[in-house]
Write a structure and sequence with these properties.
The protein is mostly beta strands and 131 residues long. It has a domain of 87 residues: Jelly Rolls (Sandwich), CATH 2.60.120. Helices cover 3% and strands 44% of the residues. It is built from one helix and ten strands. The strands form two sheets. Strands 1-2-3-10-5-8 form a six-stranded antiparallel β-sheet, with no helix packed on it. A four-stranded antiparallel β-sheet has the order 4-9-6-7, with no helix packed on it. The longest helix has 4 residues. The relative contact order is 0.26. This is L-ectoine synthase.
């Protein structure tokens, strides 16, 4: 059994920060759970364009408001507490944070903890050993 809090990962290599978001990675590939679990905050007034070419991601909003734009079809969706979206088709998308958005994110395959978005907005597919 693993028990871990946000305080346990804050300030460690599991606490990844970029100009538009911060991701605290609670469960990673090394735990061998088959998924990774992230507590992510997207900063108010920012937008982040992403495309998970190698991952399926489920996202659940627990705080804040924003807008999700699906670049594949132009659809726009209000994101607010209680809203979930599943990127099961590797959709190109942009998340615009009106306020700080706090999201719980689950990735399959699991992230290693070293991922950051590349020039296409994707996470590379990394192995636990670094390949």
């Amino acid at each position: 059994m693993i028990v871990r809090s946000l305080d346990d990962v804050t300030g460690t290599d599991r606490d990844v920060r970029t100009p538009t978001w911060r991701s605290r990675r609670l469960v990673l590939a090394e735990e061998k759970a088959g998924f990774s679990l992230h507590d992510t905050v997207l900063y108010a007034g920012t937008e982040t364009t992403m495309w998970y070419a190698h991952h399926v991601e489920a996202v659940y909003c627990v705080e804040g408001t924003g807008e999700l734009v699906d670049h594949d079809n132009g659809d726009k969706h209000l994101i607010a507490p209680g809203t979930m979206y599943l990127l099961d088709g590797h959709e190109h998308h942009t998340l615009r944070a009106r306020t700080d958005l706090r999201m719980v994110c689950v990735f399959n395959p699991p992230c290693t903890g070293r991922e950051v978005h590349d020039e296409n907005g994707a996470y590379p597919l990394l192995s636990e050993t670094g390949a």
